[in-house]
Amino acid sequence: MISAEERLARALLTRIAEPGDELLGRLIGKEGAIGALDVVRSGSPPGTDPAGSDKDGAARRFAAWRARLPDADPERLLAECDALGGRLICPGDAEWPSQLDDLGDRRPYALWVRGDQDLRFGCLRSVAMVGSRSATSYGINVAAEMGAELAERGWTVVSGGAFGIDAASHRGVLAADGLTVAVFACGFDVTYPSSHAGLFAEIARYGLLVSELPPGAPPTRGRFLVRNRTIAALTRGTVVVEAARRSGAISTARHARDLRRAVMVVPGPVTSAASAGCHVLLREWGEAVCVTDTAEVLDMVGLIGDDLAPERRGPVLDRDRLDPVTRDVLEAIPARGGAGTARIAVAAGVDLDTALAGLGALSAAGFVERCAKGWRLRRRPPDR
């Protein structure tokens, strides 16, 4: 467990700085949360920001953080969180998901969480499911069914709580009495979109609401894009169910790729603009893998020997039931015309008696028939 002083410092940092700021992340890594806060208060930004811009960029951010300090009361933030039934999870806590550390300097300063489930344990076996807000019935059905089946297999589904694919994924998990995690781009007490109040209440009751922002923080476009890296980092892989060419879901997939997580894509109709982004990922990203059902998802993210997808096979035909030698005899018969027994035996690599026995069995099964030249394939075999 971390100290109370560090917890307060991290709570304060989530209030004064935007999530995922690499400059602040580097400072925390060097000085610790308490030391980083002291540096911010001192007004002396060390060096330049990690993007390589000049000191003016760092100075502007430091000035903005200091300007927010007078109105930021970490004790009040923690009290409000507690009153809402939430808690603050920090790096070093037992509940902190260690996979978030893969984000390096962009790791969350802390997470505000509401729900009775354990975030770290729940995300040990987890998959992100993301996609278009303007989803089609096809995408919604796939997301809901896949979410339910993942839940039935004991996997947690992480998404963003938005319209379309996100909501369908969450609802599919809840219908199967599974665990789902909604990662917000606002405070976990802010209902956005407002029509999802019922969904979020159900997730809070049976799953988890997670945010890098303190209670009361409003959503912004930039926060949605930054939030996507957390969704990708929490999970073993990301499934893009349906996405247009310009979609936030592709941002999540990009983060997953950069983190060396599995990137999985559900194909859609080639005529659907809602799946155009999915097809771009499959065509242009060597890391993206096509998945069509839950078994294929688990084949990518599951444990070797436990979650491998069964081998896909076509329908079993009558030809498949033939023994190898008889099948060789069948393959030796010309596609057109006919051939004598001796010629068939040579082509099949068997002796004359074996060829005769095979031809007899094939004739009885309806594969071949006699003709003027010897033997030929039947015009309409039972099932080739």
Could you characterize what this model shows?
- With about 375 residues, this protein is α/β, with parallel strands linked by helices.
- The protein has three domains: about 5-70; about 110-300, Rossmann fold (3-Layer(aba) Sandwich), CATH 3.40.50.450; about 320-375, Arc Repressor Mutant, subunit A.
- About 45% of the residues lie in helices and about 10% in strands.
- The protein is built from 15 helices and eleven strands.
- Strands 1-2-6-5-4-3-7-8-9 form a nine-stranded mixed beta sheet, with helices on both faces. Strands 10-11 form a two-stranded antiparallel sheet.
- Strand 5 (about 180-185), helix 8 (about 195-205) and strand 6 (about 210) form a beta-alpha-beta unit.
- The N and C termini lie far apart (about 65 Å).
- About 45% of the residues are buried.
- Residues about 50-55 have low confidence and may be disordered.
* Ends distance: 67 Å
Strand content range: 5-15%
The helix content is: 40-55%
Q: What is the number of independent domains?
A: 3
| Biggest β-sheet description | 9 strands, mixed
| Broad structural category | alpha/beta
CATH class of the largest domain: Alpha Beta
- The strand line-up of the biggest sheet is 1-2-6-5-4-3-7-8-9
CATH-level-2 architecture of the largest domain = 3-Layer(aba) Sandwich
> How confident overall, as mean pLDDT?
89
Rg value: 30 Å
- Give the CA-based shape: elongated
Q: Helix and strand string, N-terminal first?
A: HHHHEEHEHEHEHEHEHEHEHHHHEE
The strand count comes to 11
Low-confidence stretches: 48-53
Could you please say which CATH topology of the largest domain applies here? Rossmann fold
DSSP summary: helix tally: 15
